[in-house]
Design brief:
By secondary structure, the protein is of the alpha/beta class. It is built from eight helices and eleven strands. Helix 3 packs across helix 5. The longest helix is centred in the last third of the chain and has 16 residues.
Length: 276
């Protein structure tokens, strides 16, 4: 069976592409990092891949709001053939393939209208804006998975510790109707919590003040996942700032970082689909 093929977009200030590639490689996939311009010029086709990834970073310096410029570029850019890149994305999703956006990548997906996309017409329904703390948050938090979420990325995960690195991670939902739809369909798939697993809006456990304590969103299909924390920054136990104590308290603890499970989940899921 051919390996799962993961495409990782880079360029324009994206800077977490190597970590994301390492995550997929460790999970058993084959990763390729490609500049977005090479996609627009059709030197590469997203159709040749099973999963498309938008990593974290500071696209266009976040000068007009995190992810906004690159989101517009991806939404309205015509490719060499004259086809809109957004239409390529629609076809990619319609074919049953998967998309992951982390941090700045989550901001792209939200501002392009790909998440949560309740209306189905890729109209922007939520945004990600400045943290309530008015400062860049670079530290570890706890996140709780919504057990009713249908995304394969988070299958079998209850909660995990993970780093956040963002200045604009506060999710604001457009109106109560959209919020009700998000809750009803369990699209709020990941939320900030205490170490004991209690969802919280309190700072510093909730680093930004997001509506619904949201740390991640999925669409109704579960094919698209966006999250503010960086699972690709916790691929090894030794990435954790307190790994020594964790290992002393539990000598049999896995040396895999908790973030790696997300990538193993999606790779194993796609491998299963390929066998059908």
């Amino acid at each position: 069976m051919n390996k799962v093929k993961s495409l990782i977009i880079t360029g324009y200030g994206i800077n977490c592409e190597e970590e994301l590639a390492a995550a997929y490689n460790l999970a058993g996939a084959e990763s390729q990092i490609v500049h977005l311009n090479d996609i627009f010029l059709e030197r590469f086709s997203i159709d040749d891949f099973d999963i498309l990834n938008f990593p974290g970073g500071f696209s266009f310096g976040d000068d007009l709001g995190s992810g906004k410029v690159l989101a517009n570029k991806m939404k309205y850019k015509k490719m060499s053939s004259g086809k809109l890149f957004l239409d390529e994305l629609k076809d990619f999703i319609d074919s049953g393939k998967y998309i992951l956006g982390v941090c700045n990548g989550f901001q792209f997906l939200v501002k392009m209208g790909l998440l949560p996309n309740i209306s189905g017409d890729m109209e922007q329904e939520v945004t990600l804006t400045r943290n309530d703390s008015s400062k860049f948050e670079d530290r570890w938090v706890w996140c709780k998975v919504n057990p009713n979420s249908n995304t394969p990325f988070l299958k079998g995960i209850d909660q995990f510790a993970v780093p956040v690195r963002h200045g604009e991670g506060k999710l604001i939902i457009r109106d109560e109707k959209v919020k009700a739809n998000i809750v009803e369909n369990n699209l709020n798939c990941l939320a900030y919590c205490t170490e004991a697993g209690e969802l919280t809006a309190e700072y510093p456990q909730n680093p930004n003040g997001s509506d619904l304590n949201c740390a991640g969103l999925t669409d109704k299909t579960g094919q698209i996942l966006g999250l503010m924390p960086h699972p690709e920054a916790y691929l090894s136990l030794y990435n954790h700032p307190n790994w020594g104590q964790l290992k002393r308290e539990n000598p049999e603890i896995s040396e895999d970082g908790e973030g790696l499970k997300i990538f193993r989940n999606i790779v194993e899921h796609i491998e299963t689909l390929k066998k059908i």
